[in-house]
Amino acid sequence: MTKPFQKIGKKRGVVGVIFRDERLLIIRRSLTVPAPGKLCLPGGTIEKGETEEFALVREMQEELAIDVTPVRLCWRSITPWGTLLSWWLSELDPDVLPVANPEEVAEVHWMTSGQIKMQRNMLPSLPQFVEAIQSGEIDVGVPF
Ligand SMILES: Nc1nc2c([nH]c(=O)n2[C@@H]2O[C@H](COP(=O)(O)OP(=O)(O)OP(=O)(O)O)[C@@H](O)[C@H]2O)c(=O)[nH]1
């Protein structure tokens, strides 16, 4: 029998999909974490016993000092190194400015899809995510 997604014993992660004015919140990873300096979405590992939503809220606090509201799961992916990643469309108060925790995050950006496509130093999942939105595989509820 096939085991449920979350029970196959791999590392699991969660990322926050947050739009503002049709731009996506992107971080550059700090130079002291795995995949240093790469652009990706904010997020991290789901700890034992955590729900995806709980881990998401915790990671957004740790990395960017923001309180997000998870809205819905919009995508699932598996990294080339076997991490199961859940992509959560999330809401952030429009007046709140994310503040990078320098231990984990070097830069914070709000990028259009065109700007993302011009970047070179990204985790592979980022351009894949944008392509999946534009092909209609993922519905994020805003034009992108
Ligand atoms: N944060 C983040 N991680 C991603 C993305 N795409 C992607 O494949 N990953 C992978 O998801 C896993 C978890 O993310 P992470 O690197 O930020 O978390 P971490 O293990 O440093 O844990 P921590 O932030 O809880 O300390 C890593 O294997 C990471 O490479 C993405 O867009 N954002």
TrEMBL record:
Q: What is its EC number?
A: 3.6.1.55
Q: What's in the keyword line of the UniProt record?
A: DNA damage, DNA repair, DNA replication, Hydrolase, Magnesium, Metal-binding, Mutator protein
Query: Hydrolase as a keyword?
Result: yes
Q: Give the enzyme class.
A: hydrolase
Does this UniProt record's set of keywords contain Magnesium? Answer: yes
What family is reported? Answer: Belongs to the Nudix hydrolase family.
Q: Which SUPFAM superfamilies match?
A: Nudix (SSF55811)
* CDD domains in UniProt: NUDIX_Hydrolase (cd02883)
The identity of this protein, by name, is 8-oxo-dGTP diphosphatase
Could you mention a single GO BP entry for this protein? DNA replication
Where does the record place the Nudix hydrolase domain? Answer: 9-134
Write down the InterPro entries for this protein, in alphabetical order: MutT-like, NUDIX_hydrolase-like_dom_sf, NUDIX_hydrolase_dom
The organism is Novipirellula aureliae
Name the needed cofactors: Mg(2+)
Cite the Pfam families for this sequence: NUDIX
Matching PROSITE patterns? NUDIX
**Which molecular function term from Gene Ontology is one that the record holds?**
metal ion binding
Reactions catalysed, as given in the entry: 8-oxo-dGTP + H2O = 8-oxo-dGMP + diphosphate + H(+); 8-oxo-GTP + H2O = 8-oxo-GMP + diphosphate + H(+)
